[in-house]
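Hi, does anyone understand the following?
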Amino acid sequence: MIPGPFQRVMFALYTVIFFLYLLGPLVVMGVSAFNTPQYPQVWPIDGLTLDWFAALFADQDMMTGLKMSLWIGLLVVCISVPIGLAGAIIMTQIQPRVRSLYYLVVVSPVLTPGIIIGISTVVFWRQFTGQTGTRFLYDGVVLTVLGQASFISAYCMLIILARLQRFDRSQEEAALDLGASYPQVFRHILLPFLKPALASAAVLAFLSSFENYNTTTFAILSDKTLTTVLAGRVRQGSTPAISALAVVIVAVTVIGAIAFEIYKRRADAAAARRQRAALEAEEAELAGTPTPAMG
C-alpha cells in the first residue's frame, strides 16, 4: 500500500518531533555553554565565551569526580567483560533443560533496581569484611566496582552471547582433530571470532559505569564520582559549566564513535581482501591441478 499525502505529512511531522525531543536538550546545553550569562541561557545570546570551559577544568571537585569515574569505569570493564565472556560460554555449553534457569539467574541483576543493588552491596560487604578482618575491602571504589559489575557483566554476556551463537563449532572440532589443545583453540580460534563483541561489550560496560548513579550514590560511601558531584551541583543550582561538561562528553563520544566506525570498516575491508585472496589462491590451485586420466 502506497502511503497517501496525509500519511507522508504525519510521518514527517513525527520524525521532526522525535528528533527535536531527542536532540533538543543537547542543543540547549550546547548553546548555553558558549553564552555569557551566569545561568544556562539559550536566548538572548549576550555574547560568546569559552570561560565556562575554563571554569569547568578549574573545578577541583568536578575533575576529581571525573578521574574517579574514569578509574571505576576501567576497573568495571576489566571485571565485567571476562565474567560476561565466561557466562556466555557456559550458556552455550550447558544442557538445554537448565539453560532457561541459568539465563534467568545471570540476567536477574539487570532487572533489579540500582538502589537495591547499591544498598545490598554496602550491607553485604560491611558484614563480610567485619567478620573476615578484611576491612580494607570496605572502600567506596571497591564497593562501587563490585556493585556495578554485578549487573553490567550481564550486559556484556548478552552482547557476547549474540556473537557466540553464530560461531561454527566445526572450526573447534577441526583444530582439536589436528592436535590443538583447548587453550590453543580458545586463544587462536574463539577469541579472534569474538573480538568485535568483546570490544562492543567493553565500550558498553565503560559507558554504563560512567553514567551510573543509582548504584553509585550508595556504594561510593564518602568518595565522589562525576555523577554524584553533578547531582549535588544541580540541587544547588545549575551553571553553564555543567553545559560545558556536556559539550565535552558529547564531542568525545562522537569522535570515539567515528574513530571506531573507521576502524571497523578498515578491519572489515581487510578481512574481505584476505578472504578474496584465499579464494583466488584456491581457484588457482584447482586450475593448476591436472585432470586424472580416464581408463
